[in-house]
Every structure is written in C-alpha cells, then in structure tokens.
Amino acid sequence: MSHKIAIIDLGTNTCNLLIAEFEHTNYHILYQGKEVVKLGKNGIDKNQLTPDGLERAIQAIRKQQERIKKHDAVKTIVVATSAIREATNKNWFQEEIQKHTGLELQIISGEKEAELIFNGVKLAFGEIEDHSLILDIGGGSNEFILTNAGSPVWKESFPLGMARIIEQIPPSDPITPEEITKINDWFESRLEPLWIRLQNVNISMMIGCSGAFDTLADLIDQTDAGTKTRIRQEVSTNDFYLIYEKLLASTTSDRMKMKGMESIRIEMIVPSVIFIKMVIERLKIHKIYQTDFALREGVLYEHIFN
Predict the structure, then answer these.
(1) What is the pLDDT of residues 159-174, one digit of tens each?
(2) Based on C-alpha coordinates, what's the Rg of the chain?
(3) What's this model's pTM, rounded to 2 decimal places?
(4) C-beta separation of 273 from 211 below 8 A
C-alpha cells in the first residue's frame, strides 16, 4: 500500500513544500515548491519573531495547504528551523501557527536538523564517500556534517545564516573589499569548532545542499530558477570562482537580471559565496557536488526506512 506525505520546511527565508508518495523503499516526488516568508527580517539579530513575519508564515502555509489538498496527502509534517528555534518568543509563534492553520509546528534542534539533512543527502547519493563534508547554507544557520563509512561522524549547526550576516554587516551595492574582509572575519572566528575538528581530515568532497547551492548551480547552468531538478551535480571549482567574481562585482540590479537568480537569493547570494570560498580554501576542498535533496527529503527518508 502506498502512502502520500506532505513535508513543510518552515525556514528563515522560505516555506518549502515536498509532497511524495512511497511504498516500501520506493518513492516518487509529486510536488516541490516554496513560498517566501523572510522570518528573519527586522528581528533575527535580536532573536525575535515579528507579527509581520508570522503573517507571512501563515499565508505561506495556507498556500501550501491548498497544494497538499490537491494531491490528497494524508499526512502533513511541519518542521521549523533556526529563526524559530533561536527566537525568545517561539512559543507564541508556534501557538499562532496552530491556531490559524491547524498544523502543529515541530521546532527541531540544530543537531536534529543536521541529521535530517544527512538523511536527505543519503537519499540522493546512496553511498556517500568517506570524509565528505555536507554543507547546508540557510538564512538562520549553517549545518556541517562530516561522513565516514556511510554515516555522520560529526555534525554541527552554527547560527551563522545569511540573513544574520546581512543584519550584522549590511553590504554596500556592490559590496566593498572592506566588507568582504569583515564578513570573512565574522565567519572565521565563529567557526573555530569546525576548523579544530577538521584540521587533520583530508576532505574528499563537499556536498552543498539547499538554497545558495541551488542558485549557484542555476547560475552556472544558466537555467531559470527552480526549473531544473538535480539529484546530484558536480560543480567545478573553476565554474565556482567565475560565478564568485561575477557576483562580488555585481549590484543588486545586476543580480536581478542574472539568468538563474532566484529573487529570494538576490541579497544573500553574495555573503553565501564568500562563505563557500572561505570554507573550500581553508579546508583545501577540490571537489564540490550540489544536490536539491536536504531537510525535507531527510524527513521523507525517515518515513520510508523507519
């Protein structure tokens, strides 16, 4: 007997929906889509969720519920991540979401988020190379997962998402060399546990998942945002650096016109590629893969295999 499940990932910037049907270990993705929520706007640096952000979240979830209804999914799971779990008023937010949508918001820990991301990547890759480093760049947090023998041997969620850095160090248009240095220093000093854990590890490849990496792949492939599904795709370091240089020289207006640029990423893609460059250079990474599979697919993985 097959099962239909709807998984909503209520992130810092977007409300992402995955609808899938599965029977035993076979699955089929029926729908993927997102709505913009920008929960971190005017409050993430204070760890506060705003009434405006709540209203955007309610409207986004209601739109996703309409899509869920069309696909007759029998179960809906709503997972909330960094912006909500770090907020001092998260209980209020959780109660309001349930009151207005009828859905219970599951606020997960950073460790659980990293675990789900790993499972999502495992669903895409099957076997994952030893000493792969999975990186999920979000608006509120970034998750790093180190693998060995097909399992995560170390995982950490850092509350250093791109919505946070934009609030801390608002970039000029275009970004200045001084701001690039400030952003690098901001990340560098806060990632000390990562540098210590990986100082003697030879990383075989980085697997990048979620928004920033999806946009990076779209910019490289010159495809309209969200139109190409990628289970796994290699990103050459040469292609990465070409896009990096182009983005750092760009204005907001330039980025709006770039083929492959998603509107939600226009602000955050510049600090995202600065962050990626710092990580690959610091850890001497030469092989990069991108996958669309992340947290939502990790929830699906749990339902299929548990």
Answers:
(1) 999 999 998 999 999 9
(2) 18
(3) 0.93
(4) no
